[in-house]
């Protein structure tokens, strides 16, 4: 994991070298359309408010819970007592990015959405609210965290979410077999190189040409940057968009040569 200083330097470099978020100079029609209609859609959708209220409540929640720690390299679990508000402050995708994910699902209307890393269900709730016809599969290893996520789904009256509890190492493969096809995935858990590339390879087997894969925090560590470089090089990947804190992979065969964009967001 990079230090705060290293990350800030990387972010500054990204900010100064990325294409303007206005779409100027972006010659790919697909990317231009994404920038105009998804990235820069500033509509305040009504679905945002109840989900952000849940986030606010979590940030004030002083309950202590026993949380499993998925130690590096294995499914070995040790539990730690953690405060809900502290987990909410450090693990949840900030509003700006969570709402971008909402707009992506609203715009591209994937029939199935898979999320690795539910936490308290904030991004899951955005996915589920973006398109009631999407079936949202989300995976979380910590039982205590998952149980709070389930309470949030019930309170937000989201009926299109299925939460699978357990280590991704055990749950992902049977879940994919059961889903048969994944149209959109958000990989936001276990930020290490080998598992990230492994999840990507597993997801590819269940992808279609229209599938979109979103990776969280690929600039978080050298390992994650190596995973991202490998993913970008994969022959089925035709287009990537790096927004620094989230990075997007498109497999669309209509794009006939590989293109990698870095866009300011
Ligand atoms: C960053 S949080 C997810 C945040 C959530 N997507 C949001 O923004 O609202 C990542 C979650 O993945 C879970 N996780 C990490 N590694 C895991 C693994 N190997 N198996 C199952 N869950 C795991 C953690 O318990 C944690 O709750």
Structure report:
The chain is of the alpha/beta class. It has a single domain (4-48, 93-262), classed as Rossmann fold, CATH 3.40.50. The chain contains ten helices and ten strands. Strand 3, helix 6 and strand 4 (135-140) form a beta-alpha-beta unit. The longest helix has 14 residues, at 4-17. It is globular, with a radius of gyration of 18 Å. Mean pLDDT is 93; it is low at 72-76. Bound molecules: S-adenosylmethionine.
For the report, how would you describe the main beta sheet?
Answer: 8 strands, mixed
In whole angstroms, the N-to-C terminal distance is 23 Å
Query: Could you report the average pLDDT, rounded to the nearest whole number?
Result: 93
Within CATH, the superfamily carries the name Vaccinia Virus protein VP39
| Radius of gyration, CA atoms, in whole angstroms | 18 Å
CATH topology: Rossmann fold
Helix content: 40-55%
Class computed from helices, strands and strand pairing: alpha/beta
Across the major sheet, the strand order is 5-4-3-6-7-9-8-10
Total number of beta strands? 10
CATH class: Alpha Beta
Q: Kindly give the count of domains.
A: 1
Query: Helix tally?
Result: 10
Bound molecules: S-adenosylmethionine
From the coordinates shown, what is the CATH architecture? 3-Layer(aba) Sandwich
Q: Give the percentage of residues in beta strands.
A: 15-25%
Shape: globular
Q: Helix and strand string, N-terminal first?
A: HHHEEHHEHEHEHEHEHEEE
Q: Which stretches are low in confidence, meaning pLDDT under 50 for 5 or more residues running?
A: 72-76
